[in-house]
Design brief:
It is built from eleven helices and eleven strands. The chain is of the alpha/beta class. The chain has two domains: 190 residues, inorganic pyrophosphatase (n-terminal core) (Alpha-Beta Complex); 120 residues, Diaminopimelate Epimerase, Chain A, domain 1. The strands form two sheets. A six-stranded mixed beta sheet has the order 6-7-8-9-11-10. Strand 3, helix 2 and strand 4 form a beta-alpha-beta unit.
């Protein structure tokens, strides 16, 4: 069930609203959650609005409200009047899932084809380029300001590859044009959040590219970063942003697999594709999700175990049997 504007869900009795996105939030997830917070706090200043997310990548710290995000799921609210899960289904909200379950009204906003929707009010559109695009559609334009517009725009350019991916529609472009009319420096925003990297990030990218491996007659490229490597560079997982997409830009490659070690025998897997491989199907097998061309999941085992598990399903699709 879709709704026209977020205001339709809010009544005079609404006192508390919780918002969460998926674990390891990206720009779209972060932008959608914080844009909703900014809007609701501006439109309804007496309503308490809490945002639950994992640690936000430093590059998105400019978003208004990012410093108030609750990272451990703790709250003294027993039952939020409304709880909104954005850019994912409730099972991927981590420590915030309990708040979604306990809420009076449960709302789910997402654009992932793998999400069938959870809650009382569901707004899922797999044809949308991003969840931020959907959030923009349900806000009253009268109350959108420069901060909200910039936050939404950041999420849109991230999930559409700066309007390059095939999920970009004419509507996406029109929304982008409307957003930049609010006057923020969109050129600087694109460079800062999408292209510009720290020296450390470039070092890690270079190492992954140097040590990458071509599989399946050059159709698949594999990159990996171990915990030992991260510790050597004193790096965080957020410093690996964009590596999977860069691997995908290798001539002849139709699928990129990037693993980085997040714990003992635990790897986060980022998958990219040109469309020949539906990586969302593969990610969903392992409890993850995403899109046909970009998806992710977490696997347990040695790096060799994880690579073999993923490679099996990639090979099946390339052979036409998956």
């Amino acid at each position: 069930m879709a709704f026209s504007v977020i205001d339709d869900l809010i009544s005079s009795k609404t006192a508390s609203i919780g918002i969460s996105g998926h674990v390891n939030p990206d720009a779209d997830c972060t932008g959608a959650a914080l844009a909703l917070k900014q809007y609701i706090s501006k439109r309804y200043p007496d309503i308490r609005v809490d945002v639950f997310l994992d640690e936000i990548p430093t590059m998105y710290g400019f978003m208004k409200g990012s410093g108030d995000v609750i990272t451990d799921g703790a709250s003294d609210v027993e039952h939020y009047d409304i709880f909104i899960a954005v850019d994912c289904e409730k099972s991927r909200t981590g420590a915030a899932e309990k708040h979604f379950d306990n809420a009076v009204l449960k709302v789910n906003i997402d654009h992932h084809v793998s999400n069938r929707g959870t809650g009382d009010e569901i707004f899922i559109d797999p044809d949308a380029g991003s969840s931020c695009e959907l959030v923009y559609e349900i806000l009253d334009r009268e109350y959108i300001d420069r901060n909200i517009a910039e936050t939404i725009y950041c999420g849109i350019i991230s999930d559409t590859g700066v309007f390059k991916y095939n999920s970009t529609s004419p509507k996406t472009m029109r929304i982008g044009a409307e957003l930049i009319s609010y006057g923020f420096d969109f050129t600087e925003l694109i460079d800062r959040t999408f292209y510009r990297k720290t020296y450390l990030q470039n070092q890690l990218l270079g190492r992954v590219l140097m040590e990458s491996t071509l599989l399946m007659n050059g159709k698949v490229i594999l990159g990996i970063v171990t915990r030992k490597t991260l510790d050597f560079y004193n790096a965080k997982s957020s410093d690996l942003e964009g590596i999977a997409s860069q691997l995908m830009l290798t001539t002849g490659v139709v699928c990129a697999v990037f693993l980085h070690e997040t714990g003992s025998l635990e790897f986060k897997v980022s998958l990219r594709s040109n469309g020949m491989v539906d990586v969302s199907r593969i990610a969903s097998i392992f409890g993850g999700g995403g899109h046909v061309r970009a998806a992710g999941c977490t696997l347990n085992g040695t790096s060799h175990d994880c690579i073999n598990n993923i490679s099996k399903y990639v090979a099946e699709q390339l052979a036409g049997v998956g």
